Amino acid sequence: MKKHRVLLAAVAILAVAIIGCSSARRGEAIGRPVQVSSPEIQRGQIVFQQHCHRCHPGGEGGLGPSLNNKPVPSFLMKTQVRAGLGAMPEFDKHEISPDELDDLMRYIIFLRRAR
Amino acid sequence: MKVVVQLALAACACLLAGCYGFRPSSGGGQISGNVSRSINANDVALPPGYRIEPIARGLTFPTSATFDERGALFIVESGYCYGEVWTTPRLLRVETNGAVSVIASAGRNGPWTGVAFHDGAFFVAEGGALEGGKILRITRDGKITAIVDGLPSFGDHHTDGPAVSPDGWIYFGQGTASNSGVVGEDSAKFGWLKRRPDFHDVPGADIMLAGENFETKDVVGTESRRKVKTGAFVPFGTTTQPNQIIKGRVKCSGGVLRVRPDGSDLQLVAWGFRNPFGLAFAQDGQCYVTDNGYDDRGSRPVWGSPEVLWKLQSGAWYGWPDFSAGEPVNTEHFDPPGKLRPKFILAKHPNAPPKPVTTFAVHSSADGLDFSRSDRFGHVGQAFVALLGDESPATGKSLEPVGFKIVRVDVRTGIVQDFAVNRGRVNGPASKLRRGGLERPVSVRFNPGGDELVVVDFGIIRHDKTGAHPEQGTGVIWRIARVP
Questions:
Q1: Cis peptide preceding B337, ω within 30 of 0
Q2: What kind of fold does domain A37-115 have according to CATH?
Q3: Where are the domains positioned within chain A?
């Protein structure tokens, strides 16, 4: 039981550290250029610009929280896009098609890794 | 199993820590402690190969810049800021050593929101919070003549622009009286409703209303406990009926208009904007317009509404008050948390609104813009847009500061990229970051040679629950160019 509590505390501390300490800022100006090359990631960038940028500008926080410093796996992000969460509305397949959603995930992960 | 549940709960707690409902507003103007303006170009981050320097400082509420045919720089100081701070609007010449001299100043009818030089004279958008909006023609020796007056500028938003088209027309914008069509308690908080209790929005063409009315406290009358109902496009405390017709007019709210430099032939080009603050012509002659999105405030709050860059189409209706960036506001996407979903104000829509070129962050305040025309600066054909920054909490909650930067837009793809931002782990105005970089960039203008971008930085505006608190004397003019 004690080992599980220690593990739980370690996970919580690690998550807070990752979320709290790393910067979400990206872009050429700030020294973290986002050089989009592959067609899938380019398509994902357009989907992000059309649907996500307004609340998560460049993956930073704004109306919504930042994305670039959140280690959330793709399947959870996809679920949140389709189902919404709290103030975030849902985006159905007519707004973001399944293929576009896959491209969007590729772009978000690419953005997260840009350093 | 118990461990899995505990881990899942821990993960949920971490996720919820990012959630909108749990976190307080933390916009760029929400600053604790004393604030002051320090200037340090090294605190501004630019892409490799570019540099920035301040060229004038200590200005009060500067909003726009222009160059004459000899390449001399001129700016306007607004004379007004939200929070109802009044100073004298002025047209100033800025020398290369940063010294300023007054070309013209006038009264208390600010804000002066923009200036353009054309055919030997300056054209200024006089926002007109007290006397109504005007377009002024100012000669080099400071003589002021109004070539347009009587614009509906007494409310939330004002007369904006102007920009000169390749064929010599003066284009300008006129913002709306209210947030989303209904005069309410928020109009009183702005300060104008008691001054102008009968003022309201006016459409650009005849419209038919759905007849929605909204109940609020009577913030105009003397009995504070009394409730009143107010419809759209009518004065505070006036109700409307389904299918009621409201007559339109050329001098409307939320329009882009044009006029000849001598004041003749005033025309409405397009309407249905909310606050078309920035206008600029690209090299191909196409006019682009920045338009401020709805706020989460007042009788009909709209949430999640982005700032917009439009391509101007003559004769089009751009969607206000029922669409945001081309999308209908009566959907989940615009539901204000804890409040009612907006319903349509109009029973019929003049046309399906155009699709935007792009959108910017909600509440970031996309304002003045200009197009790069020279390889000596780079990014030819792209729009450079000043994002003034959020005015949270008055406009709605922001989890983090948005705006406070210059962005560039590829108008073919709509992709927005940061161009000039403050250094640091987080985004925000210089005052909040306790640094010396950009505060609130409000407009940009390329010089005639196209190799320098002048940035007009409005200065410090703090925000708290009582409203806006601008700091006079904190405006700066910056210049960005390539490193030689």
A1: no
A2: Cytochrome Bc1 Complex; Chain D, domain 2 (1.10.760)
A3: 37-115
